[in-house]
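Board notes (copied after class):
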Amino acid sequence: MFTGIITDIGKVSRVEMRGDMRARISCGYDMAGVDLGASIACDGICLTVVEKGADWFDVDISAETISKTNIGANGWAPGRRLNLERALRVGDELGGHIVSGHVDGVAVIEAMRDEGGSTRITLRAPGGLARFIAPKGSVALNGTSLTVNEVQGDRFGVNVIPHTQAATTWGGARPGDQVNLEIDTLARYVARLAEAG
């Protein structure tokens, strides 16, 4: 489990295809404190550390994960920057919302505009997921916990404050970018209960 509060920006340094995809991600974490088998959310995707060095870790990414995330759309070429978050530990502050690291689909940035000191971003949700997104609810976008401002059909808006732009990859976001979307787990259960009657 994660919180959607990004704690580092990593960089893809190597990608290999060996049945599954193996990616090496350089980071600022003290890898001596990260066990093999630990989970790290990489752009919102919960991935397992399978090898590590002083300032890097390797992950294996299945074809299923590639097909359901922006890896399939954008690829992970060397140099790509990624939002990173280590798994939540008992006693950690829950500053965002409960995030599983299981991406539901890929949203597309349709528009961006400055609004005060923040940036207002409008995104289009993939089919079937928009009904789980509610104003003032939470979503995880590329692993970042964000509050939904408004929803109109399959489009929804969020504001990204300057701190978030500086501490994550959101400072480099552009219209047309495809981003990993994880809907709020509570919204999923509420919708399921409503369907059950």
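Comment from the instructor: The two ends are 29 Å apart (CA to CA). Residues 185-196 form the longest helix (12 residues).
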